[in-house]
Amino acid sequence: MNALQRSGSGSMAQSPRSSTSQAPYLTVSVTDPAKMGNGVQAYISYKVITKTNFPEYQGPEKIVIRRYSDFVWLRDRLFERYKGIFIPPLPEKSTVEKFRFSAEFIEMRRQALDVFVNRIASHHELQQSEDLRTFLLEDEQTMERERSQETGIFKKKPADFMQIFKDVQSRVSDVVLGKEKPVEESNPEYEKQKNYIFQLEDHLAEAQKHAYRLVKRHRELGQSLSDFGKAVKLLGTCEGNSLGKAFSELGAKSELLSIKLQREAHHLLMRFEEPLKDYVRAVQSIKATIAERANAFRHHCELAETIKFKEIDLNKLRLTRSEKLADAEREYEQLKADGKESKRKFETIVKLMNEEIARFQEQKTIDMGVVFHEFAEGQAHLAKSIAEAWRSLLPKLEACSSSLETPDA
Amino acid sequence: MMGYENQGFEEAHLYASKEEMASLVLNEDPSPPSNGSKSFPHDPLSSSPPFVEIPTDDTDPLHPPSANQVLPSHSSINSILEPPSYADAIFRSFDSDYVASPEVNSQDQSLSALPSFSSDYIKICVSDPQKEQEQSGSLVPGGSYYFTYLITTFTNLPEFNGAEFNVRRRFRDVVTLSDRISESYRGYFIPIRPDKSVVESQVMQQNEFVEQRRIALEKYLGRLAVHPVLKRSEELRVFLTVSGKMPLARTTDVASRMLDGAVRLPKQLFGGESVVGGAAEVSEVALPAKGGRDLLRIFRELKQSVVNDWGATKPPVIEEDKEFLEKKEKLQDLEQQISNVSQQAESLVKNHHDMGETMGQLGLAFVKLTKFESEEAIYDSQKACAADMKNVATAAVKASRLYRELNAQTVKHLEKLHEYLGVMLAVNNAFSDRTSALLTVQTLKSELSSLNSRIEKLEAASSKIFGGDRSRIRKIEELRETVRVTEEAKNCAVREYERIKENNKNELERLDKERQDDFLSMLKGFVVNQAGYAEKMANTWETVAEETSGYVK
């Protein structure tokens, strides 16, 4: 199980129809990546195993086969339906690496997908989602149908976060260029939070960058130790006698350490660098929600404007006793209802966001805590092995020098 | 809070007394500097307990220049980190015959096991470079200049008749010294003198160049002083003690080694190996007049014929000593391997350096994150996260420093490898001496045989004429005289060759023994160093693991 799962996940929701006395749980694992298809059409499929006692799931365990675009579908649906909630992020859609499908890439993606689904499964609201059920239970043909419907109905792909950012950013540049002032909330606390999110992304991205480099350094050092070990062993055979043996042993240890370093490099990649990257994505997802909130606010404001104008119109019509009055009144009522609805939507988003931010901070602290712990343990363990390996040579070196001091036969 | 007070680790804790360390950090709670300078190794390896030393000036400065690269100097970031290292001692592995300085040390570095050398003492320092004007009329108006160095010698060797000497010498004098020693001590593994390196001097700043040269000279003279035979040489003694103008005359470079060997013969004829005070001009030494000059001419002609040969190679020497050939091949192989290891070692050092750098940058990134999260933290969870990040940042920066220190020590240990590459050059030279001496012998032998066959022919021709052929007889007389001289020369050459062979043999034994000792101590030092620093790093990270263990309960 991935360390990023919260312990005791899935036990948040209390299903009123639960007949079992056991606490409700819903856990998912994404496993067994398998390459399917050939050439340009090739893709990776994953086994998604669901274990639950939620009544809606009709059964304790279910296994389905899913591919990356299915996960994207799920994320998009959730994003549309649960505005205000921070939807867990997905690993990037890669266009180049896809063709290479290196083992490392596949493992990184699998881990990220696993984290994604489990975060949804452990979110008290998202876990109730029908789309999640579809994703976890339906067979592949049904899934494919759902996926192809998606592109028709929702023209704007919320998955395209870049577009959303551009909207946000273009609004800023509009102000700079002296265009019409955009309609934005004037909530200083919210402003602070937005700033925090934007800066957090930068900071996390930098940390992730260095984490990635650290992985590389481990690999390079590992290679270097291997080369060094080989050269030392050759020198050992050249020297012969006990000194030669000493060199050979040193060379062997160096090669051993090289392996340990490669292992740690992989460990660092999966448990340190990838979680950091994951949090960068998570923050980007928050930015998408921020954009949604801005949209909702703008929509609400625009409606309010429209309603005001409509009122003026209405009064005009009342005064002139036009026959259009009835229609206009109907429209006006409709608009007012819409206005109420948009206000409600906006306020829901605000409320949800406040909860989400607190939850996010808590989750971040826990997740990062685990990451830091594993990072420190990994480094400590590596350093200890290194020290042990080198120290184990000392008795042998001692033996060599004493044999050198005694005159050879 | 750092947790390095933990017991059971083979470290001693010292004041890191450098001001630079203190300036790095400003924080509320300086951890009490842990006292005590004892090392407590838990494995009973007496010869290599990890000693700790207070950093002296010739070590890499612990932190500042490089630390300033890692940490920006705004105090707000510095205030995030705890005081780095009252107890963060510099760890140095210390083996009995390894001294962490390039200076010559008083003991024979590698023969610590042999008591007979322990009473000898000769230490040479090179200092105080000064610019001086070229005296003799130079072609360049304005005059050129050169540098002289003060050479100070402390010794208790009886030959010196004194305990301390100071002389001024210029680089040219060192070249002379080196050449003279090479002539007199053929077959020995003579340390290679520093390069003349004219090109580099134009690239570098003058100060740098002079300083580099000063260090190189000190190293070179130190190596001479440590060589059991060369340290007692007349040439060295004169160089070190006689004030004023350098008394050793420059060698008149006569010819190739082959000719050199021949030219040396008259010297050998009259005994005494190292005759100081003049290049052995053949003409000055009493030689059987005509024969001698003929001899010289013969050799010149022979050399000429060799040179004229299109292949421009010397006639092949038939080395019959199989053992020698095997040994030579082995040494060539050894040289190759040492060179390889040296290269890989450099690469290893570089990789450790890179690792340290990246670790430091990671630490920095987390420092910034910590600061960011702490400022206007709204949620308690944020504060907790910031605290965790701070721990990680501190550990990462510390680890980064440890890598740097590790490397500084590793470089010193592995310097031995570089030294031995230089020794290999000396060995090659010594083997060349032998080869050219053998060539001289073989040349003389073949010369003798051709002379004898000429005599035979003349005698045969002359005997046919009744009463003798006066001109032929005279010729035969002359030839016999030449044969006599050549015979003596050949015997001399053979003696010289045997002498060189003996020198080679002794030196090879010495080399083997010293090399074993040196390499062994180098390995020990390297291993202890690596282990020690790895342990320190383990400590650092274990602390963080402890502090974050709550998250994985």
Structural class of chain A: mainly alpha
How would you spell out the order of helices and strands of chain A?
A: EEEHHHHHHHHHH
* Spatial separation of the terminal alpha carbons of chain B: 21 Å
Count of distinct strands of chain A: 3
Q: Poorly predicted ranges of chain B (pLDDT <50, ≥5 residues)?
A: 1-76, 84-117, 252-261, 263-293, 307-313
- Helix percentage range of chain B: 55-70%
Number of strands of chain B: 3
Most extensive interface between two protein chains, with residue counts = A-B, 67 and 72 residues
Q: Quote the beta fraction of chain B.
A: 5-15%
Brief overview:
Chain A: Residues 318-363 form a coiled coil. With 409 residues, chain A is mostly helical.
Task: Give a verbal description of the structure.
The complex is a heterodimer of chains A (409) and B (553). Chain A has 409 residues and is mainly α. Chain A folds into two domains: 1-155, Phox-like domain (PX Domain), CATH 3.30.1520; 157-402, Up-down Bundle (Substrate Binding Domain Of Dnak, Chain:A, Domain 2), CATH 1.20.1270.60. In chain A, 70% of the residues lie in helices and 7% in strands. Chain A is built from ten helices and three strands, in the order βββαααααααααα. Chain A has helices at residues 68-81, 97-100, 103-121, 130-137, 140-153, 161-176, 188-239, 241-320, 324-391, 394-405; strands at 26-36, 43-52, 61-67. Chain A has a three-stranded antiparallel β-sheet. In chain A, 36% of the residues are buried. Mean pLDDT of chain A is 85; it is low at 1-18 and 153-159. Chain B is mainly alpha-helical. Helices cover 57% and strands 5% of the residues of chain B. Chain B is built from twelve helices and three strands. Chain B has helices spanning 19-24, 64-70, 75-78, 171-184, 198-203, 206-226, 234-241, 257-269, 289-308, 322-374, 380-464, 470-547; strands at residues 122-133, 145-155, 164-170. A three-stranded antiparallel β-sheet of chain B has the order 1-2-3. In chain B, strand 2 and strand 3 (164-170) form a beta hairpin. In chain B, helix 10 (322-374) packs antiparallel against helix 11 and helix 11 packs antiparallel against helix 12 (470-547). The radius of gyration of chain B is 33 Å and the shape is elongated. The two termini of chain B are 21 Å apart. Residues 1-76, 84-117, 252-261, 263-293 and 307-313 of chain B have low confidence and may be disordered. Chains A and B meet through helix 7, helix 8, helix 9 and helix 10 of A and helix 10, helix 11 and helix 12 of B. Chain B: Residues 127-247 form the PX domain. Chain B: It is found in: Cytoplasm; Endosome membrane; Golgi apparatus, trans-Golgi network membrane; Prevacuolar compartment membrane. Chain B: Residues 317-351, 441-517 form a coiled coil. Chain B: Belongs to the sorting nexin family. Chain B: Pfam families: PX, Vps5. Chain A: Residues 24-143 form the PX domain.
